[in-house]
Structures are given as structure tokens and as C-alpha cells.
Design goal:
Elements: E1 4-10, E2 14-21, E3 24-32, E4 44-45, H1 47-64, E5 72-79, E6 84-88, E7 98-99, H2 107-114, H3 123-126, H4 135-145, H5 149-154, E8 158-162, H6 163-171, E9 181-183, H7 184-187, E10 193-194, E11 199-200, H8 202-208, E12 217-219, E13 228-229, E14 241-247, H9 248-255, E15 264-268, E16 272-279, E17 290-295, E18 303-310, H10 314-322, H11 332-338, E19 347-349, E20 367-369, H12 377-403, E21 410-413, H13 420-430, E22 434-437, H14 442-455, H15 461-467, E23 470-474, H16 480-497
Parallel strand pairs: 1-5, 5-14, 9-12, 15-21, 21-22
Antiparallel strand pairs: 1-2, 2-3, 4-7, 6-8, 10-11, 13-14, 15-16, 16-18, 17-18, 19-20, 22-23
Length: 501
């Protein structure tokens, strides 16, 4: 069997390729792409730039491992979810930039839909509230605003997909027979798939006025038959099966080997995303969480999860760096925050595009509260880090209410998991241990696991559990009175962030 499993991890700010063997990651390459802000609240990506970068990082990762595409057994995809694009079937060219998950241009459209049935109008079928976050409003906006798109969609000449669909289509041939598919985890984030049937819903398509002809085929996250094979004239220069696909947060759940009900992980990336495995039946949320598909292996029943999605986490640190210029690199925020013993009474609510779980308030905007003349940039840096921990607390509290499960520990990953100060504060605020694995790139690892399981590179889920290794654990070290005072201050700040837009 060839040596490696390749994971393509296409995220909000960059695209990576990591080659894994049975022991873990071997070689990696990463390339950032441009964030386009055509109007306030709008965010777009250039799909062709993403595809170019995908080809480049594949080549660089292969070179880093002194390997060729023939050394790769299978390919898994992990992708930024909900980001929506349409392209021409015959030419392979995007018909508009990809509209990114955090884009808020569809707020008026969501409000119009909510006027007839409320924000939870489609929650029973989809597990999702009406929000700009999801793909269906974005696709409807494209159909209404890109000239000629609706007619092309109805005729089958235009294709819709999230980023996974775009990459798989291009990897497996593009206009020359490329596979137009999406896996169940990504489909569950469109607001067009019924959670129980795992198929596109005619009622939802009718409500959003979206033609079925534009949609990809829904497939399993782990698929022994594969979605297609790469072309010899493609970036792998070999025929390699693409047989694993997961939305990035579900990929991290798999990468953290959270295969049993009650197991949970939190990924600290551009946003912050906590998932709780709830088993083979979807659990309806009454506390502002999302019900989503965690993964589906071959012909086995789907596994579901509750999810708390936080829009702004690592991107707030980037804003401190690029928007305010208070730090030169993202890593500097920890040393700046360590320069003060506490937040000095300062709280930062990063509701740049509204508040996601558990509030779902599109009218919220970012605020800095509690400022006095005593506050300095160290206090602001600490408030920036603490904001992610407080938001995670709110999500975990909602999960406890919905599931009745009290976590014994929280597995963490993503870029901000490298920040020891944040991880200790996270343990203090949650009052549970926080555990970081040796491999923190669990999104890519989950994509690799999915592809490797499909072809038997790894035997089964228990084999993967045996591969997981702990790096460090932080235990709570904060008095309950101090915790309560901080959470009270955070709650006041959140209240004041609402109703601005």
C-alpha cells in the first residue's frame, strides 16, 4: 500500500495540505488567500485563488515528504463550512465570488423568511435557526442577484456547492467528468437537507425557491467506494481516490476521536466551534445550539452532534494585529496579556457580524466595556483572549441544558490552543480540565482519518483512539466567587452589545 494519506484542509484564511502516515503528520504546506470586503458586512473569497493554492500546497507537501502522488493512498477533504459558490458546469469558472460563512448581506432576506414562522421556522427539519450563517440564504441571494444565474441553474448549466464540492469537482476532473458531491456534514449546514432523511428537502427547496438541478449529490463522510479519482494531469499527477470529506468542525471531532455520545471538542480557529457527540439520533436544542450531522461512515447510520458556533475567536487576535497594530504577530498577544494580572475590569464582546450561539442576534455589534483610565493595552489584550473563553462557557452551559451531560473534560485544538494563558483561563472559567492533544491540527487529521478508514489504512475507530495522544492538561485554579464575578461582567457586556444594528 502507498505510504501516505493526504488531507486538504481548506479554511477561512488559508489552504493546507498535510501528508499523514500511521504515526501522524509527515509534511505540510500552507498558503493564505485574500479576504475581499466589497461592502461593510460582506466577505468574499476568490474560488480560483483557492483552487490555485490547493494545487500549490499539494505540490509543496509532496516535495516536503520527498514523495509523488503515487505514494498517496487516498485523499480526505476538510473545508470551511457554509461558504457558498456557484460555477459554470462546462467551463469550470465561478459565476461570482464565494460568499463566506460570516458574510451578513442576507440579513434582510432572513428577516423576511422569519416574518412567516419565526427564526426557528425550519429548525425541526434542519436543526438550524434562520441566520445569515448558512448556505441557503446565500444561494438564494446569488440566484436573485447574479444575472442569468437562475435560468442556468434550472437548466443544469450552473452548479452550487460549498468549498468541499468545488475542490472535489476540480480534483476529479472539473468540466471533464468531475464529481459534483457534498458530504452529509456539509449538506447539513446548507439549511436545505432534512436531518432525518439525509436528503435535499423538497419543502425547503420550495421555500427558498432553489432549483434541485443546481445541487450536488449527498454522500457519506467516509466512503469506501470513493467520490472519484484524481486526474493524472492534476496536482497529484496520479489516480488517487478521494474518499473522505467532512466540514472542518466535524473533521476536528473525528480528529479528536470523539466517537462516543457525550464526548466533546472545541476548536479555536477564525471562529470557535464546540461539538458534542449525541449519537445516532439528532437532539433538538432549546438553548440556541445547532443540531448537525457529526459524520457518516459508509452505509452505517449517521452520527449527530450539538454544536455551538462562535463567529469571532482567532480573527479577533488578527484584528488586534492588522486593524489596530497593537501587536506585530498573533503570538505576541500572550506575552502582552501576561503583562497584567487580570483584565482590569475590561470586557470585549467581538460581535463584528452579530452574535452566534447561543444568542443568534444579528443586531449585535462589537463593544469594549468597563474601560477606565487605568486600562492599558495589556488589559485589552487580556480581554481579547478572555472573550473566546467566555463565549465557550456560554456554549457549554447551553449544551448542559440541552443534553443533560456535564463534561468531565474538554478536548481542544486549533491555533489558539497553543496559547497557554488562554487554555488555563478556559479551564478556570469552565471549571473543568482542558486537554490538548499532541497533534493540534485535528481538522486535517480528521480528514485524513476519514479517507484512511475508507480504504482500510486505519482499521476502525478503536484503532484511531489508540493513535490519540495527550500533550497537556490544564486544571481549574480559580475561586468560584472570582469566576462568578467575571461571568457577571461578561453577561452585562453581552447585553449592551445587542440591538446596535
Amino acid at each position: 500500500m502507498p505510504k501516505f494519506i493526504a488531507a486538504i484542509d481548506q479554511g477561512t484564511t488559508s489552504t493546507r495540505c498535510i501528508l499523514f502516515n500511521a504515526d501522524g503528520p509527515v509534511a505540510a504546506a500552507q498558503k493564505e488567500h485574500v479576504q475581499h470586503y466589497p461592502r461593510p458586512g460582506w466577505l468574499e473569497h476568490d474560488p480560483m485563488e483557492i483552487w490555485r493554492h490547493t494545487k500549490q500546497v499539494v505540490a509543496q507537501a509532496l516535495a516536503g515528504a520527498n514523495a509523488t502522488g503515487s505514494d498517496v493512498s487516498a485523499i480526505g477533504i476538510a473545508n470551511q463550512r457554509e461558504t457558498t459558490l456557484v460555477w459554470d458546469r462546462a467551463m469550470g469558472q465561478p459565476l461570482y465570488n464565494a460568499i463566506v460563512w460570516s458574510d451578513t448581506r442576507t440579513q434582510d432576506l432572513c428577516d423576511r423568511f422569519a416574518a412567516d414562522g419565526g427564526q426557528d421556522r425550519f429548525r425541526a427539519a434542519t436543526g438550524l435557526p434562520l441566520a445569515t450563517y448558512f448556505s441557503a440564504p446565500k444561494l438564494r441571494w446569488l440566484l436573485d442577484n447574479v444575472p442569468g444565474l437562475r435560468a442556468r441553474a434550472r437548466s443544469g448549466n450552473a452548479l452550487f456547492g460549498t468549498i468541499d464540492s468545488w475542490l472535489i469537482w476540480n480534483l476529479t476532473g472539473g468540466p471533464d467528468g468531475g464529481a459534483h458531491v457534498t458530504d452529509v456534514t456539509n449538506a447539513s449546514r446548507t439549511m436545505l437537507m432534512d436531518l432525518r432523511t439525509l436528503d435535499w428537502s423538497n419543502d425547503l427547496l420550495s421555500a427558498f425557491d432553489i432549483p434541485r438541478e443546481v445541487l450536488p449529490r449527498i454522500v457519506s463522510s467516509i466512503d469506501r467506494n470513493g467520490y472519484g479519482v484524481t486526474r493524472r494531469d492534476g496536482p497529484f499527477a496520479a489516480e488517487v481516490p478521494v474518499c473522505g470529506c467532512l466540514g472542518d468542525q466535524q473533521a476536528a471531532l473525528v480528529g479528536q476521536t470523539c466517537f462516543n455520545p457525550g464526548e466533546s471538542k472545541n476548536t479555536y480557529g477564525t471562529g470557535c466551534f464546540m461539538l458534542l457527540n449525541t449519537g445516532s439520533k439528532p437532539v433538538a436544542s432549546k438553548s440556541g445550539l445547532l443540531t448537525t450531522v457529526a459524520y457518516k461512515a459508509n452505509d452505517e447510520p449517521a452520527v449527530y452532534a450539538l454544536e455551538g458556533s462562535i463567529a469571532v475567536a482567532g480573527s479577533l487576535v488578527q484584528w488586534m494585529r492588522d486593524g489596530l497594530g497593537l501587536i506585530r504577530t498573533s503570538a505576541e498577544i500572550e506575552s502582552l496579556a501576561r503583562g497584567v494580572p487580570d483584565n482590569g475590569g475590561v470586557f470585549f464582546v467581538p460581535a463584528f457580524s452579530g452574535l452566534f450561539a447561543p444568542y443568534w442576534r444579528g443586531d449585535a455589534r462589537g463593544i469594549i466595556a468597563g474601560l477606565t483610565a487605568f486600562a492599558n493595552k495589556g488589559h485589552l489584550a487580556r480581554a481579547v483572549l478572555e472573550a473566546t473563553a467566555y463565549q465557550t462557557h456560554d456554549v457549554l452551559d447551553a449544551m448542559r441544558k440541552d443534553s443533560g451531560v456535564s463534561l468531565s473534560s474538554l478536548r481542544v485544538d486549533g491555533g489558539m490552543a497553543a496559547n497557554d494563558l488562554l487554555m488555563q483561563f478556559q479551564a478556570d472559567v469552565l471549571n473543568v480540565p482542558v486537554v490538548r492533544p499532541k497533534v493540534t491540527e485535528t481538522t486535517a487529521q480528521g480528514a485524513a482519518y476519514a479517507a484512511g478508514l475508507a480504504i482500510g489504512y486505519w482499521k476502525d475507530f478503536e484503532h484511531l483512539r489508540a493513535c490519540w495522544r495527550e500533550d497537556k492538561t490544564w486544571t481549574p485554579d480559580m475561586a468560584s466567587a472570582d469566576r462568578g464575578k467575571l461571568l457577571e461582567g461578561w453577561g452585562k457586556a453581552v447585553e449592551r452589545a445587542m440591538g446596535w444594528a
